[in-house]
Amino acid sequence: MPRRELKDPHQVEAWLAELGGQLTQPGRLVLIGSGALLWHAARRGITEPLSENSMDVDPVTDSDEVAERCYDAMIGSEFEQRHGWHVNLMPAAVLRELPAGWEARASVSTYAQLTVTVPSPVDLLAPKLRRNEPRDWAHAAWARRVGLLSSIP
Amino acid sequence: MKIRAELDAETAIWGPYPSYDDIARFEYGRRMWRRPAMRARLLAHWSDARHPHRERFAERRAQIEAVLASDAPSAELDAVLREQGTTLRCTAREIPPVFGSFFGSDPRR
User: Fold this and answer.
1) Contacts by A46-51 with C-beta closer than 8 Å and gap 24+?
2) Using CA atoms, how far apart are residues B26 and A20, in angstroms rounded to an integer?
3) Which of B32, B34, B100 comes nearest A76 by C-beta?
4) Which residues, listed in sequence order, are joined to residue A115 by a DSSP beta bridge?
5) Does the pLDDT of residue B37 top 70, yes or no?
6) How far apart are CA A63 and CA B22, in angstroms?
7) Min CA distance, B31 vs chain A (Å)?
């Protein structure tokens, strides 16, 4: 069974810093899903844990070195044993689930050699709410409660 | 933004409700296949006695390797596979996942 211990905003930033420090050349990724919501929370100094724990982060990357590092952090890996959650690489096609124009509203940050793009909280929630699973609504409610949103569609 | 024709072409390959996990195994698998060390790790992992899909991989290994080794655009590859009686969508589903603590280690680290 995959472990489901991703809940604190600082966990994702700590992973990105670790990943960026490992790269030998510039790389980039787009972060989506609940891990990306946690990233926004960390950036705003929010410490309230996610209302329902997550088991993974979902990056999209066109950098082979980044992808290779992510393979070492997949489900059941030593990375998961150490962190309590895993990395689930997603294809670029998944980004079309985001609302049009998301790139212009996204945040960009760098961690050593790694450039990370994170869609806005509202854009991140759009595909989650379409999926309409209880955990998605729980994450949306958490995002609103901690102040990541002004409103939920 | 992708133009409509491009999206239609992707839908023709992956269907109206694509499995992003399948697409990820195909796309990242193909990229990792070009890295000799990663290719060796993937082959060792998928053939490992602890991997539950090892027998299925062994049965379909030639086709999976051909897909991963191909540089052809997805639509072209799908067309070739259809001539062989299958599809890229079906073949991508046969690419084994990477999981567990036995993926091996990169000797460079």
Assistant:
1) A46/A9, A46/A146, A46/A147, A46/A148, A47/A8, A47/A9, A47/A10, A48/A9, A48/A142, A48/A145, A48/A146, A49/A7, A49/A8, A49/A9, A50/A6, A50/A7, A50/A8, A50/A139, A50/A142, A51/A138, A51/A139, A51/A141, A51/A142, A51/A145
2) 25
3) B100
4) A28, A110
5) yes
6) 19
7) 7
Inter-residue contact A103 to A22 (CB < 8 Å): no
Q: Are A93 and A87 in contact (CB under 8 A)?
A: no
**Chain B positions in Cβ-Cβ contact with residue A96 (cut-off 8 Å):** 2, 7
Across-strand partners of A15? Answer: none
> Which residues in chain A are closer than 8 Å to B40, comparing Cβ atoms?
none
Output the six-digit token pair for B106: 């990169």
B49-76, pLDDT tens digit by residue?
999 999 999 999 999 999 999 999 999 9
ipTM for the predicted complex comes to: 0.93
Q: Is the four-CA dihedral B9, B12, B18, B19 of positive or negative sign?
A: negative
Q: Is the pTM of this model over 0.80?
A: yes
Q: Do B31 and A96 touch (CB under 8 A)?
A: no
| A2-35 per-position pLDDT tens digit | 888 999 999 999 999 999 999 999 999 999 999 9
Q: Does A14 touch chain B (CB under 8 A)?
A: no
How far does the CA of residue B81 sit from the closest CA of chain A (Å)?
21
Q: Tell me, what DSSP letter sits at residue A97?
A: G
